């Protein structure tokens, strides 16, 4: 029997009350996530920084401003998507998330994902990509390639902050968000064509998009995509 979805506000209350790890002792406030509760695209970053900890919202400051520009390249606005992080509390000094912190905190992200039920999950940076795809392949190899995690389409991209510190990543980031826009439009076209195809081929039921073996030819160069072992469900 499927597990019932938990309302986002209930998950938020759980996050705000959480004291499972020492990060709770140093936080100003938790950073649950923000955006469209029925978003087609879920953006997953790594952990809150100083500004996020102060404001209680993910991706504010320079990285957030740049993310807004990148979303526009994909034909999206901030209110169209839902933005969350792997960790809900800021690690001291903005250090990398630790494995035990990820293990304790990610059940909240799993529940958010089940409730929002996005079509695409965009992972920003190494930690969110490795967690979602259950892989050790790094973001440098995976960025800009369409992957799968269960029924979800996963599209890894460099973290926007990477381009602030390393200008050479700016072109890759902008190209990948342009590709995300192409993927969304291709999916729209596929869905629009599906009813007509079902009428024309009633003898052979169409395969559901969520379990399609391969993406359409214009959904990135699939032949060049790095092989990722069969990922686990979120």
UniProtKB/TrEMBL annotation:
Pfam families found in the cross-reference section: UDG
Chain segments carrying region Disordered: 189-234
Residue span, Uracil-DNA glycosylase-like domain: 32-178
GO molecular function annotations of the record: 4 iron, 4 sulfur cluster binding; metal ion binding; uracil DNA N-glycosylase activity
Alphabetical list of SMART domains matching this protein: UDG (SM00986), UreE_C (SM00987)
NCBIfam families xref list: UDG_fam4
UniProt record similarity statement: Belongs to the uracil-DNA glycosylase (UDG) superfamily. Type 4 (UDGa) family.
Protein name (database record): Type-4 uracil-DNA glycosylase
